[in-house]
Amino acid sequence: MPEPDERTWSHIAELFYKRTHFPHCLGAVDGKHIRCEKPNGAGSEFYNYKQYHSLVLMAVADANYYFISVDIGAYGSSSDSTVFKNSAFGKKLEGGQLILPSPTYLPKDENGENMPYVFVGDEAFALSEHIMRPYPRRNQSVTQRVFNYRLTLARRFVECTFGILTNKWRILHRALDVKLTTCDQIIKACCILHNYVRKHDGIRFKDK
């Protein structure tokens, strides 16, 4: 999938803010376990915490339920944070190789500090300059609860994107019983077709 330029990232952030009121959000990141049959001689590497064998589809999605980046083929036993950190996209993000918009003040806070643009994830991801996760659930202030609510609204876009993907391409509803390289190709093809269909069928929203 083509890597967005700075102008495209800015447009993505505008859409996220329009639909979730979460500023400076460039995408929602999460991992999905794609069920597969146990590969020969694999041991427990592909056995995940849900107690079945799987490959991890790590993805970043925008506010139009469109995949920005996907990483396919990590062991099912791996954590989301580890998979993302080791992905090509994660390495570029950590190394400052993505052409992201420059830090700027938040909406309605013209006199505030310049804040970086971020990708939002759940508690499984490590907090960093460009990765935002929710506050711990214990002893939250009102401000922190509101922040977590807005972050959840933004993060749900990647979860909904996974739902649309699997319901459209129903081969992902059962365990893939093919070679691992073929599993990767099937998942990648489904993601590409998903983006193609989203682009050519159009997108309807009922914005509040």
TrEMBL record:
Annotated Gene Ontology cellular component terms: nucleus
Lineage, highest ranks first: Eukaryota, Metazoa, Ecdysozoa, Arthropoda, Hexapoda
Cofactor dependency: a divalent metal cation
Keyword set, alphabetical order: Hydrolase, Metal-binding, Nuclease, Nucleus
InterPro entries in the record: HARBI1-like (IPR045249), HARBI1_dom (IPR027806)
Domain DDE Tnp4: 29-195
Protein name: DDE Tnp4 domain-containing protein
Single GO term (MF): hydrolase activity
